[in-house]
DNA sequence: GTCGTATCTTCGAAGAAGTT
DNA sequence: AACTTCTTCGAAGATACGAC
């Protein structure tokens, strides 16, 4: 049902647990996660974009502090939805945190929102502004749940009740997401759209409303994430090999994309790589 | 839902800077 | 010198989006 990971190193020790919810939620949620005692040696952390949506509950008293690309600090009350990002943002990690979160599948947040997901593109929004008092009630319920398993169970049961639309995807989006999984198949988007039977314009509209990103941007992010996965925990990297294997035309174009998504050169990123490939300590 | 077009991405080339 | 890593540029094609 779930697995437990204990991470520790010289500088800090933390507990990470994850839980995969049951169907039908599992079709929309990748996993729930719980962090305890996260207090890394750096005070700020670059969060790299993966196009997915994350919902975070802070279980400590403090507010959640994030920074945008202009380094402007933004405070959120105890819960925040990080919309589908194609840009990095920065998390304040100066205070030890305990938090619970939901990592949604692409387009998975859609049934739980009343507006199109693309309105959250590159945006982080306090959960209260989207769910009103229901966000506060859920936060209280999670705090009152004693064990981590209880918290996961509370979250699972409450989330089912919070869906404002049926747990169904548009068939065109389902089909496209499935097609986009196979990186080895480097067909142009127009081929995939042609198979769907909708006009290009209509398909992009539907995809954007459900996933929050344009199809092209989604594919570029998948390719970028494939690079991060490939070099995760390796000691030596041949950047040209990685670029070609992940579908880039050459190393130059790979570097350009890498910088656009992360603000770092591949070698910079590699030298700073931490426990999780989407989080990079910066100060 | 289509059409036309502006914008973006990819492809391909050339070369600078740093390292071995 | 050879090699690796990274930058810049222009052309062509693909994609996104406003108008209808």
UniProtKB/TrEMBL annotation:
User: Transmembrane residues, as ranges?
Assistant: none
Lineage: superkingdom:
Bacteria
Q: Name one GO molecular function term.
A: DNA-binding transcription factor activity
Residues forming the HTH araC/xylS-type domain are 170-272
Q: Keywords assigned by UniProt?
A: DNA-binding, Transcription, Transcription regulation
InterPro entries (alphabetical): AraC_XylS_family_regulators, DUF6597, HTH_AraC
The protein's matches in PANTHER family, at most eight in alphabetical order, are given as: HTH-TYPE TRANSCRIPTIONAL ACTIVATOR RHAS, HTH-TYPE TRANSCRIPTIONAL ACTIVATOR RHAS-RELATED
The protein in question is named HTH araC/xylS-type domain-containing protein
